[in-house]
Design a protein that fits this description.
The chain has 17 helices and eleven strands. It has 490 residues and is an alpha+beta fold. Strand 2 (177-186) and strand 3 form a beta hairpin. The protein is elongated, with a radius of gyration of 28 Å. The chain starts with a helix and ends with a helix.
């Protein structure tokens, strides 16, 4: 046997275990290796097929541990396989030069066959650590409710997620939630309605069950303005009122849920500057820019994002959604919704896997949520369902709602109307984008998740006559919810 053929048969054994032993005349050992490899391959296929029907099971802690251990064992097994195959071919019969060359090549091959297994184990460990970090309960916060596998949604047929963007600029103290969107998801169809609330919505009320209601019976009035984006900040800085530390999310969920007439199930908050790193990790976002957007300071001296279809990097996406130059809060809200939609549409599974390490590094300190770890496996299937469902959007801004004196009854009626229209349209699921992490389940609308028309508890009877002029936004401020696919040009 020549040096080249010995190396070739050894390499072939990495793909077809036992090939080198059969070539060397060790037929019994060769056939045993082939049978073991075939059994292992079948077992791996059978194990993998179960995830086709239950995709969420792939993110269970037990699954991640199993795959990680399996990858480690596979790396050692294939290392041993190459070494045994090489020795079975008796390299000592080669000339000295052939022995040296074949030894070096096979040594490299031994290390090379371990690389895919090592990469798999490392990626799985990174994913597990990331999920544990992001989904860990906040110290002092309320304990998550147990998740029952047979009914993870406790009979609900809609689930409502509060999606938040936090401004973590260095000159700001505490958490200010400058982007607030509720994603109301129909668990049966995946159809989703996005409700955007302005940061400067004033004097929000709280339900009777909230400690904030006792402190602000006539509406939130912190710092004399009572802006919605200060609710989290106030609750975090008054733990004695809230009954514990890190209760800002609960206070904000109460306020926004009561405003819309919805029960807010979970929240997810992303740091805006961390979001820019996430966008860079997936290679940027393609967004339709309606008009030139100047950014940087109060006068837009840092740069301009030109109108048209643009591939924006993380910093550009951040400022596209945050710039106030020649703009207002309502225009920013509209652009932020388009960013959410573009991210969900363009962050395909292939893109995420290809850039997983960079995404994990960006996401580790970027997210904060109260979604329990055990619920994640039920969120994944609905997330895929929502991706192909119809997404509509409604924002409560002038001229529909005057933020300085909101008509609470009108907000709830518009919320209920948008949800009803989304439910009625479940049979015409248009290919679109999603803007929220979601779960799995069945059904239409449930009392706990549907708006309630409690006009008697509304602090205002109507919208005042003096209203700002209608801003130019990529998502018009109509009374009806509209499709993000059409509004944002996806």
């Amino acid at each position: 046997m020549t040096t080249a053929s010995l190396i070739g048969w050894t390499a072939l054994s990495a793909i077809i275990p036992g090939a080198a032993h059969l070539r060397a005349g060790k037929r019994r050992t060769g056939f045993i290796m082939l049978v073991l490899f075939g059994a292992l391959l079948i077992a791996a296929v059978v194990y993998g097929l179960q995830f086709l029907e239950n995709v969420g099971a792939a993110v269970r802690q037990s699954t991640l541990t199993t795959v990680m251990i399996g990858a480690g064992a596979g790396a050692l097994a294939w290392f041993a396989l190459i070494a045994m195959s090489y020795m079975a071919l008796r390299p000592d019969r080669l000339p000295r030069k052939g022995q040296i060359v074949s030894g070096i090549v096979v040594g490299v091959l031994c290390v090379s066959v371990m690389a895919p297994f090592a990469l798999t184990a490392s990626t799985i460990k990174t994913a597990g650590d990331l999920l544990d970090d992001v989904l860990a309960p906040q110290p002092g916060g309320p304990s998550p409710s147990p998740i029952r596998a047979e009914d993870p949604w406790n009979g609900r047929k809609r689930v409502n997620f509060l999606l938040l963007g936090a401004d973590a600029a260095g000159n700001r103290d505490g958490v200010r939630t400058d982007s607030m969107t509720v994603a109301s998801v129909n668990l049966a169809t995946g159809n989703t309605v996005l409700f955007s609330l302005p940061r400067n919505l004033q004097y929000v009320r709280f339900p009777a069950s909230s400690p904030m209601q006792k402190q602000f019976p006539n509406g939130f009035n912190f710092e004399g303005q009572g802006l919605l984006n200060a609710v989290w900040y106030y609750a975090d800085n008054n733990p004695e009122l809230m009954g514990g530390k890190n209760r800002g999310p609960e206070a904000l969920k109460d306020a926004i849920g009561y405003t819309l007439g919805l029960h807010i199930d979970y929240y997810a908050m992303v740091d805006m500057f961390g979001f820019a790193r996430l966008v860079d990790a997936i290679g940027g976002l393609r967004i339709r820019v309606e008009q030139d957007i100047k950014w940087g300071g109060h006068f837009g001296t840092a740069g301009t994002i030109k109108a048209g279809y643009r591939q924006l990097n993380g910093e550009e996406v951040l400022w596209y959604g945050r710039s106030r130059v020649d703009s207002d809060d309502f225009s920013r809200m509209a652009r932020q919704r388009c960013v959410i939609g573009a991210l969900a549409q363009q962050a395909s599974p292939a893109t995420v896997l290809a850039n997983f390490s960079k995404i994990a590094a960006a996401a580790r300190h970027m997210f904060r949520t109260d979604i329990p770890r055990d619920l994640l496996e039920h969120l994944v299937p609905l997330g895929l369902k929502v991706k192909d469902a119809k997404i509509t959007s409604l924002q409560f801004v002038p001229p529909t709602i005057y933020t300085g004196n909101p008509d609470w009854s009108k907000i709830r009626k518009l919320t209920l109307k948008a949800i009803r229209e989304s439910t009625a349209d479940s049979h015409t699921a248009a290919a679109g984008v999603t803007a929220s992490p979601s779960g799995a389940g069945t059904g239409g609308t449930s009392p706990s998740a549907s708006p309630t028309a409690s006009a008697s508890s509304s602090p205002s009877a109507g919208v005042t006559a003096s209203r700002p002029t209608r801003p130019v936004t990529p998502t018009p401020n109509d009374k009806a919810a509209e499709s993000l696919s059409e509004i944002c040009g996806f």
